[in-house]
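To illustrate the input format used throughout this study, we show a single complete record. The first block contains the structure-token representation of the backbone; no residue identities are included at this stage. The design step must infer an amino acid for every position from geometry alone.
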């Protein structure tokens, strides 16, 4: 564009004279000077002050005109500056430039305050982004180089001083230290890590220097991916926001046409200026993005990353929520919950199982070995011909006896008769010479705070909570479903079946899928809203497949997402209701001569600030604790479609208690 060069030069000059490099603040100052000069002239009849103020008036008009022309030429649409330019021009022609200056000052001040609040909110969000753009100390050829994090390559050795942020994902190869992971997982206590332990970028090295070998490139690390995603999420526009932008365009052009119609009918430049000054397109334009930005920032503060505001908006209309089990409502760590002896003493059974399992390295084997040690089994038996049966069990020979350890299906396949035994969990059967001698019941470690989770989710407006697990043991699926009080449960679910389950329930309404972002990725992507838990473990996959990423491992964060989403929806509805009411009433009052341009501009300013403050209470919780808090509480009651996720409803949900010890 040939004229872009000239606009860039103008902007560069304006930035030079703008306080704090803020052109919006320059607009306010450029308007307040003629307000003072024209006001003193009106009070004391000093024409010299009028003429001293006129250059500033024209400069202010020029700044707004330049912003308007840029919007028209580069973006092919009009902006709120159109109204200010017209008001300042009309009042100047009408011989009342004081009114025009007051309008420019009030509206400019309102916009400055509004966007300052928004900017401060974004600065809090972008503090994480700035962390991602720092440097790392890399050891190359016995030299230490300080380079940008995005230039770190896989297998580079990174030096991390005590007290510094961990800049990359990797493995500790030298040193040990306590690591503060609260910014990533929400875990409040430091975690001690030594050689061989994994560290995640964005955490804090507290007690000792470390050398870390990067296991991925710097721009693929957790922190880099997260910061890029936050930047992208703030740029995303929802369908609602796009409709609001279109409405603003229609509103601006309609009001401009209406003001000229008033001028044509009445011949009054005064009425025309008042009509232009009172209409506030800013309330429309800011209604959605301010709420989205505030909610995204609030969730980020709680270690929850949302990909824009649209998935949060969709959470209000979710009918079915499908929960994965392993790694979502359980820790994905098996534990032995019960030993059932059948013709063999308990200690002998454990010794036999631990001796065989010690030859293998998988989670169930470790659980059995650790439990046996805790039960006093210290001496293992010699094992011969140990063989892993992938997905089925283990067979081995111990003391001239054939041992088979595995699931009920494994033993049944060998035509070994199984006794009828009741248990809750996953059964690991042990047979000696084709005769069952005992059962080791395994189950995933349950998080005590998950008890009654479905009731709390129901209180937030979700009609159905479903547990879907890949476990092939129905008893284990039922145990977990009963613990969280799910409406239904499905077991032996493949990733493909979970995807089919999402599509099945989408016929009845919107579906949210909650999983760990790994084998649940297809289902997360298919759902209306995909929520990945423990996203720091595989951030790339979690972000690609999900709309919302819970960085820690707490499924209770679902309640936070639901509560804030409902609150955000109510605030957006309030903002639009305010915009419609304010503009309709204000324009009617201006038409009938009940306002003047100065008062109209003041009301315009109040409207903009109200919308921003209303949205800001999503992030700044102190707003609702202030003296105006009851006003917002009353508004929430008026516009809420249904009373979901209200404190009294959540308090009525079953009390969270620890799972009883076994």
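Output of the design step:
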């Amino acid at each position: 564009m040939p004229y872009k060069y000239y606009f860039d030069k103008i902007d560069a000059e304006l930035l030079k004279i703008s306080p704090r490099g803020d052109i919006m603040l320059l607009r306010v100052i450029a308007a307040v000077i003629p307000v003072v000069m024209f006001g003193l002239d009106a009070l004391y009849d000093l024409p010299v002050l009028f003429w001293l103020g006129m250059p500033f008036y024209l400069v202010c008009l020029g700044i707004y005109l330049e912003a308007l022309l840029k919007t028209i030429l580069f973006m092919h649409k009009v902006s709120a500056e159109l109204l200010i330019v017209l008001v300042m021009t009309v009042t100047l022609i009408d011989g009342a430039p004081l009114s025009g200056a007051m309008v420019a000052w009030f509206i400019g001040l309102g916009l400055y305050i509004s966007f300052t609040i928004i900017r401060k909110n974004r600065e809090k969000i972008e503090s994480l982004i700035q962390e991602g753009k720092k440097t790392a100390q890399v050891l190359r050829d016995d030299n230490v180089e300080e380079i940008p994090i995005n230039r770190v390559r896989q297998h580079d050795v990174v030096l991390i001083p005590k007290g510094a942020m961990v800049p990359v994902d990797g493995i500790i190869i030298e040193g040990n230290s306590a690591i503060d992971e609260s910014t990533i997982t929400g875990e409040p206590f430091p975690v001690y890590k030594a050689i061989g332990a994994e560290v995640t970028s964005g955490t804090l090295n507290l007690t000792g220097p470390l050398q870390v070998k990067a296991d991925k490139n710097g721009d693929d690390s957790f922190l880099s991916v997260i910061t890029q995603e936050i930047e992208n999420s703030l740029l995303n526009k929802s369908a609602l926001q796009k409709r609001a932008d279109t409405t603003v365009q229609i509103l601006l052009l309609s009001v401009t046409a209406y003001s000229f119609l008033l001028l044509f009918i009445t011949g009054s430049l005064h009425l025309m200026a008042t009509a232009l000054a009172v209409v506030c397109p800013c309330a429309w334009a800011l209604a959605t993005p301010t709420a989205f930005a505030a909610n995204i920032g609030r969730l980020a503060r709680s270690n929850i990353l949302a990909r824009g505001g649209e998935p949060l908006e969709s959470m209000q209309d979710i009918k079915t929520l499908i929960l994965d089990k392993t790694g979502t409502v359980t820790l994905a760590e098996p534990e032995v919950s019960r030993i059932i002896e059948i013709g063999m003493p308990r200690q002998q059974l454990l010794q036999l199982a631990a001796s065989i399992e010690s030859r293998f390295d998988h989670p169930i084997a470790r659980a059995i070995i650790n439990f046996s040690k805790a039960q006093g089994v210290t001496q293992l038996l010699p094992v011969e011909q140990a063989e892993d049966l992938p997905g089925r069990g283990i067979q081995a020979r111990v003391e001239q006896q054939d041992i088979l350890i595995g699931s009920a299906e494994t033993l049944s396949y060998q035509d070994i008769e199984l006794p009828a035994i009741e248990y809750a969990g996953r059964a690991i059967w042990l047979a000696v010479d084709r005769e069952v001698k005992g059962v080791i019941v395994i189950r995933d470690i349950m998080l005590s705070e998950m008890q009654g989770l479905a009731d709390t989710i129901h209180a937030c407006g979700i009609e159905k909570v479903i547990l879907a697990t890949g476990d092939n043991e129905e008893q284990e699926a039922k145990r977990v479903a009963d613990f969280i009080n799910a409406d239904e449960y499905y077991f032996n679910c493949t990733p493909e079946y979970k995807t089919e389950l999402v599509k099945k329930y989408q016929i009845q309404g919107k579906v949210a899928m909650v999983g760990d972002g790994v084998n649940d990725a297809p289902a997360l992507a298919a759902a209306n809203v995909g929520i990945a838990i423990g996203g720091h473990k595989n951030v790339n996959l979690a972000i690609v497949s999900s709309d919302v990423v819970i960085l820690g491992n707490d499924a209770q964060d679902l309640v936070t997402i639901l509560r804030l989403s409902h609150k955000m929806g109510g605030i957006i509805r309030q903002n639009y209701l305010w915009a419609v009411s304010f503009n309709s009433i204000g324009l009617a009052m201006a038409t009938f001569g009940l306002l003047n341009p100065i008062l109209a501009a003041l009301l315009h300013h109040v409207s903009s600030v109200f919308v921003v403050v209303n949205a800001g209470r999503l992030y700044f919780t102190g707003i609702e604790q202030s003296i105006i808090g009851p006003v917002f509480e009353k508004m929430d009651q008026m516009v809420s479609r249904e009373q979901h996720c209200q404190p009294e409803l959540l308090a009525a949900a079953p009390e969270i208690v620890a799972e009883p010890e076994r």
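Structural context for interpreting the output: Residues 651-662 have pLDDT under 50 and may be disordered. Residues 304-323+451-475+483-551 form a domain with the Rossmann fold fold (CATH 3.40.50.1000).
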